[in-house]
Automatic annotation (TrEMBL), chain A:
It holds the Pfam family HATPase_c. CDD domains: HATPase_RsbT-like. This is Anti-sigma regulatory factor. It comes from Streptomyces hyderabadensis. Residues 41-134 form the Histidine kinase/HSP90-like ATPase domain.
From TrEMBL, chain B:
Residues 167-278 form the STAS domain. This is STAS domain-containing protein. Keywords: Phosphoprotein. It holds the Pfam family STAS.
């Protein structure tokens, strides 16, 4: 029996600044429930915060979908950020560190990618953007086998 | 069409005169309804008085000829009272649906009384009258719910403003050293307030050192970092050196992965370290008391 709490798939609307705080809380709860370590939680929440803000500012609002996604014995969490905004014309440029079209630091997409294990960007100019990230709670193996 | 309007007006006028005539009886019946009975627990007279006020308001609305108008000025006189009643029910753990149901339950006794009036007139007239009264009671239900909900929204907006003020105290730690303990989400509105109060404190306290403690900030993403950098830059322009303290291990790792360069900002792990640094810079040495040193010799 898994020790972690049950985490079910959920959808969170992103339509205002206050929704961003709700997104962070939902991700924190789900990640903590699956047994993510504090550092892993913080990384995932920060990535979610960046992407949710992109959804709000560049995509004009949308939603986030949380789905548990275990890999073997390791619990995992997949987050999809979906908007139907203008899309990204130049993905390479958008993914570059320091490039911004919104007055920020330009680290949202590239930074979020570095914070998670899997990063998928699906965009089409005029038809919106979907960013899907996945992180697994990696259990650190003990440095050496226990003495018998 | 005009006939219909005329009939509606006639029905409304009828309902109005009915409400005025049977005011006492309606109030007596309503005072036993759960909505009034549980809110006005002190005395039955109090409940009856409250019921009469509502009946009067309804009669005035009926008189205006627009029983469906929830913005009718006549409702204004009982809006406060209705809002208090709804709030009291909500505090008792009732859901909006249940409160709405309780208001709806007020309809049956009045309709019953009205039907009793029409024993000798035609069925059509009776129908018109009951319909007008039903519309009127529906409006009352909407008014109660609207009042309750807008009160809730007002409360939330007020609390948000309060939070904005409360959450950003600037503390004078020492002569020339001020600190802001940041707690919670640092969004654009909050960081604006923080920056303003910090800059004001720097001037007022003639501070040379300002400490921003982020122990209570759960997430530092690129926007929060940008807000911090802007605040530090502004403080620097005022001639104060800024120290960001309270960076937890998890936050530190996240900032590095995110690629944020905080190299230009002076940082310390804890508030105590930041204070020690600022004191040392001012040439103030913190040491144990002479007596204590003597005893260890």
């Amino acid at each position: 029996m898994p020790a972690s709490r049950d985490v079910t798939a959920a959808r969170v609307a992103i339509g205002s600044d206050t929704d961003l705080a709700w997104v962070r809380q939902q991700v924190r709860q789900a990640a903590a429930g699956l047994g993510f370590s504090l550092v892993q939680q913080t990384k995932l929440i920060t990535a979610a915060s960046e992407l949710a803000r992109n959804t709000l500012i560049h995509g004009g609002g949308g939603y986030m979908e949380i789905t548990p996604c275990p890999q073997g014995t390791a619990p995992g969490l997949r987050l999809s950020f979906v908007d139907s905004g203008p899309g990204i014309r130049n993905v390479e440029q958008a993914m570059a560190d320091g490039y911004t079209s919104g007055g920020g630091l330009g680290l949202g997409l590239s930074g979020a990618k570095r914070l998670v294990h899997e990063f998928l960007l699906d965009t089409c100019p005029g038809r919106g953007t979907t960013v899907t990230i996945t992180a697994w709670a990696t259990v650190v193996p003990s440095a050496r086998p226990e003495a018998t | 069409m005009t006939d219909q309007v005329g009939a509606n007006e006639a029905a409304a006028a009828q309902v109005c005169s009915f409400l005025q005539r049977r005011r006492e009886q309606i109030a007596q019946r309503w005072a036993d309804a759960s909505l009034f009975r549980t809110v006005f627990t002190l005395s039955r007279e109090e409940a009856v008085e409250a019921c009469k006020a509502v009946v009067d308001a309804l009669a005035d609305v009926a008189l205006s000829g627009r029983p469906e108008d929830i913005a009718a000025p006549a409702f204004g006189t009982v809006r406060d009272q209705l809002g208090r009643m709804a709030a009291s029910r909500a505090r008792a753990g009732f859901t909006p649906a249940q409160i709405s149901e309780e208001v709806a339950a007020l309809r049956a006794p009045v309709v019953e009384l009205l039907r009793g009036e029409f024993t000798d007139s035609s069925e059509a007239t009776a129908q018109e009258g009951v319909l007008a009264l039903t519309v009127l009671m529906g409006s009352l239900r909407l008014v109660v719910m609207e009042t309750a909900l807008s009160a809730g929204e007002e409360l939330i907006a007020r609390q948000r403003l309060q939070l904005l003020e409360v959450a950003t105290p600037v503390i004078k730690l020492w002569e020339g050293i001020v600190a802001v303990p940041l707690i919670g989400t640092l969004d654009s509105a909050r960081s604006q307030v923080v920056m303003e109060s910090l800059l004001e404190a720097i001037v007022a306290q003639r501070a040379q050192y300002a400490i921003l403690d982020i122990t209570g900030v759960p997430t530092v993403d690129s926007l929060v970092a940008q807000h911090l950098m802007k605040t530090v830059a502004a403080a620097r322009l005022m001639g104060a050196e800024c120290i960001v303290s309270g960076i937890r291990p998890a936050i530190a790792q996240t900032i590095v992965h995110l690629g944020i360069d905080l190299g230009t900002i002076l940082t310390r792990a804890g508030l105590a370290d930041a204070l020690a640094y600022a004191l040392a810079q001012q040439g103030i040495e913190v040491s144990a008391h002479r007596m204590a040193r003597a005893s260890t010799r």
